[in-house]
Design goal:
The protein is of the alpha/beta class and 218 residues long. It has seven helices and six strands, in the order βαβαβαβαβαβαα. The protein has one domain: Rossmann fold, CATH 3.40.50.1820.
């Protein structure tokens, strides 16, 4: 049975930064598809409309989703507004589902509001759709506190430099894990990639990465 993974990037990105994670998922046997969207020009709900069309163009029996940062909020709108018929699992990586302190600060003044654009509309300020347990969803957060968010004061510790762990807690999620990584480091870490693969296969994370590497490759 062919299994696909849709990778959804975060704000200010175009998906190119997900190349290492994409390669690791490909090596693990998944057919990867990258959904690119205008993170500042459109609202998360508008980008979910494009994502719905994108998903329906994929010929696979199983479709998983791996979302980084704002990408997870786009996915919440997808499941809230549309019916996603094909089975699969979801992994959120550094997704500020409870709102982003960094985004709030940036949106609070006209000088920096451009930096978040339309992403704050039912998105980065926390007023997003409720997750209704449509499928297994694993949440990965980082706790290495270095990142661009520090330029505007940063979120509350512990955090990954941009998003705090508290901001990633999602009611109805299946499992949680915190990794030693920055917000963007989540995309490049081999240990994080192993946890992503493990969740896609088992519906839960694991404690011992050395064991997970063997299991994920099996």
């Amino acid at each position: 049975m062919k299994e696909a993974v849709v990778l959804i990037h975060g704000i200010w990105m175009n998906g190119a930064e997900m190349f290492r994670l994409r390669q690791r998922l490909t090596d693990a046997g998944y057919e990867c598809h990258l959904y690119r969207y205008p993170s500042l020009k459109n609202t998360p709900e508008e980008n979910a409309e494009g994502l719905n069309k994108f998903v329906h163009s994929i010929d696979a029996h199983v479709i998983h989703f791996v979302c980084h940062s704002l990408g997870g909020l786009v996915l919440l709108h997808l499941f809230d507004k549309y019916i996603v018929e094909k089975k699969g699992r979801v992994v959120f990586m550094g997704v500020p589902v409870n709102g982003s302190q960094v985004a709030r600060r940036l949106s609070s003044t006209c000088i920096t509001r451009w930096a978040v654009g339309q992403s704050i509309v039912h998105g980065l300020l926390g007023d997003r759709p409720v997750w209704k347990k449509w499928r297994d969803l694993g949440v990965i957060s980082g706790d290495f506190p270095i990142g661009v968010g520090l330029m505007v004061g940063g979120p509350t510790l512990p955090h990954d430099g941009t998003v705090s762990i508290e901001e990633t807690y999602l009611g109805g999620a299946t499992d949680y894990i915190t990794m030693s990584a920055t917000h963007f480091g989540l995309l490049y870490s081999e240990s994080v990639a192993i946890q992503v693969i493990t969740f896609l296969r088992a519906g839960k994370f694991g404690d011992e990465v050395s064991n997970l590497l063997f299991d994920a490759a099996g």
